[in-house]
Amino acid sequence: MNTKGRRGSATPRLVVAFFALVGVIVPVTSSAADDHPRGGTMVVGVSGEPAHLNPAITTAGNLHGITASIFNGLVGLDQKAEPVPELAEKWQVSTDGKTYTFFLRKDVRWHDGAPFTAADVKFTFEELLLKFHARTRAGLKDNLTEIAAPDSHTVVFRFRNSYAPFLRRLDVIEAPILPRHIYQGKDAFTGAPNQRPVGTGPFRFAEWMRGNHVVLKRNESYFRSGQPYLDRVNFRFLPSTAAAVVALEAGELDYLSSVDGANLNHLRTAKKITLTRSAAGSGGSYCIITLIPNLRMPTLQMVAVRQAINFAIDRNFILERVYFGAGQAARGPIHSELTWFDPALATMPYDRAKANRLLDDAGFPLASNGVRFSLRFAYPHAGFGPLADALKTQLAQVGVELSLEPGDVNAVTERVFVKSNFDLGVASLCNGPDPDVGVKRIYHSSNILPIPFGNGAGYRSPEIDALFDRAVQTMDHAKRLILYREIQSKLIGELPYFWLTETEGYRAYRSHINGLRIWSANAFEGAYINRPPGK
Fold first, then answer.
1. What is the pLDDT of the chain when averaged over all its residues?
2. Which of 194, 196, 190, 240 is nearest to 216 (CA)?
3. Which H or E run contains 424?
4. Can you tell me the distance from the alpha carbon of 38 to that of 231, in angstroms, rounded to the nearest whole number?
């Protein structure tokens, strides 16, 4: 089935087929040829400087855009979001889907020369990912019973119940593997390794000039022979997408991982620049701009109030005027390009009159100044300012006053997800190829924790918890589909979040850059400059 894009073109829905590699050994794939030009520095534009470089404790996109080149996962994801070998050269899954055994490569060393072993995998999951990584913790914490390391190159994960999507949540975004000898005994959030990370990936950390850039250099001992081709990757921090586009056209940047709608038409005709839509991938894909109500606040605990706010939001206006038609109006908690999405869902209606009636009935009459109540809206000033202005205008029309409180992305993330000091927040929340990878983490009550990009709303529903738990224990794809569609229906009824627009992501790069793996979190491993370095 196809859905129509905003410009009238038919865009095929991505169908991510469910499969379980039951009882199968998956062999290592051959590496790419290494006859590409070598050398040179690729300059990458980054919107927003990360607070640290520890990818195991956050799902922040600006951080993972850098660290995906420093670290590796047990598996990677190919262009169809299927698992392929990475730190694990092969694996075996029991017939009941409860035991996953990974056989690790023996030729991998950390950037400081220490050998990579099963102890690193066990430590990373037990001490970092299962405690702090919002998506991985939400999916694994309550089901995973044991991680065993019977020898230095074998890791066994044992689950209480069958766990269908496990292989798809083991890439460098969902489960980056960190060195035990570096991070053990260090504070996960403030420890020194967060500023000078040590990984196994194609590039090593070289330099961090605060407020300006992070530089990575080639890992000469990378386990994929001949790669990478580049000498360095320089991640430059820029204040806005507009500034990044100007720098790209001037030749000061080589690559932008995100281009907003305002610049799409311009870049389509720009000389020596390639514009391409972001491909399928890990938990950093299929993103929905989502408003986060703090359900700890009495006013927002009322379903009628949340319904009124939802009716007051004109998603089509936001899509066209804020995001310049790049994407689609959201229809629920699962991105419409995933097969898990229920195509029978209606569009989210805009009905200002109904919103006003609901608020009247809920006991919030208009005061003489036209205000029923006020909400503090915490949002990152980079990228969300136009959205904040649009929401302030729309909600004012039903008597809800938004107090706009912008801030640095790292400060706002801590305020919303860690300190819960807000009324409304906003984030680009990404689904991933399976609902257990990116959807569950913001709805399951077990993820109401002071961790970035978890259940920031504080939403609790035993019924929704039970449905998510049943879905992930079901190995049959058709039965899982029924459960996830039931979840969508119930969530739309309760509105624990407000889903605004589905992002239609684009990337842009100078035409002399080749070998980019647009579908991969580690986009630069095979990249090369098709010209002599320095020219």
1. 89
2. 196
3. strand 424-430
4. 8
